[in-house]
Amino acid sequence: MKKKIVLLLALMMVFSLAACSPAADEPTAPAQPGAEAPAEGGLGGYPTKPVEVIVAYAAGGGTDVGARLLLSEAEKVLGQSMVVINIEGAGGEIGFTELALSEPDGYTIGFINLPTFVSLPMDRETQYAIDDVRPIVNHVFDPGVLVVRSDSEWQTFDDFLAHAQENPGTISISNNGAGASNHIGAAHLEYEAGIEVIHAPFDGTTNMLAALRGSHVDATVAKISEVADLVNAGELRLLASYTEERIVDFSDVPTLGEYGYEILFGSARALVAPAGVSDEIIDYLVAVFQEAIESDAHMEKAREANLPIMFMGPDELKTYMENEAIYLQEVKPMIGM
Known about the structure:
Layout: H1 2-20, E1 51-55, H2 62-78, E2 82-86, H3 93-100, E3 108-114, H4 116-123, E4 133-149, H5 157-166, E5 172-175, H6 181-193, E6 198-201, H7 205-213, E7 219-223, H8 224-232, E8 236-241, E9 266-274, H9 279-294, H10 296-304, E10 309-312, H11 314-331
């Protein structure tokens, strides 16, 4: 258990460094973003046509919303259109595979969700490996929350926990795919609290939340950006957050740590490219996305969409992915995954 806590603290240190020093990993761009890139230096005039951006989940989900928000600003800097391609299925695996196996020419990049991207190859034989992609930047770190419908009998986490303890195996919790991020978060809580629940996997956030809103499941583990509007509208109720401190905009919601369960969980949403993309193109894309992320227009839109921005450059993102793998190797046997 001490080893697990040390690993979690190490991850939080990465978050703190990334948040305090957003430009620490800033590359030297081979050309000014927004201007036509020169042919020399391995860019070959890149980009001369629209760039496709794969999102491995359905349109309207948290990853898709954040992607479209960022790309609307990034394409202004890039000087070319950036087109979202939704390829959903198998908890993200189908889209991740398409992304990893795409032509490494810089015209197909995509979003990965962590820990899901790292977790899936640990759970089953996938057609992609972690090393099949190259990190570009991280966009969002979205904290996890436990949520129920507003008409639920459980007003607090204590109510939820008491029912789970007295009625093992009766509470159903939807997630965004077997072995995906929200499944891990729910299973980790189940393990630490010593309860038994029913895990209900769905393909992506949209379907996961539809099941909750339609009363087909009792609760869900989600990311705050995915449910904030529904909570503010009075449709859903937050019971607890998987954060070290209370979420600023929901300061009345306790953390799981306040109940004695030191579980830190959330999802990073990052841009990557197929492994064979050149250093010059990667550096150029890092510069493009950093400028877009840090723009006033993007930050305002992100705030309105409840997206917690956490920029990481490629080196920081690579370290984060490696730490996620360490954490998962530690926690998965504990939770029977």
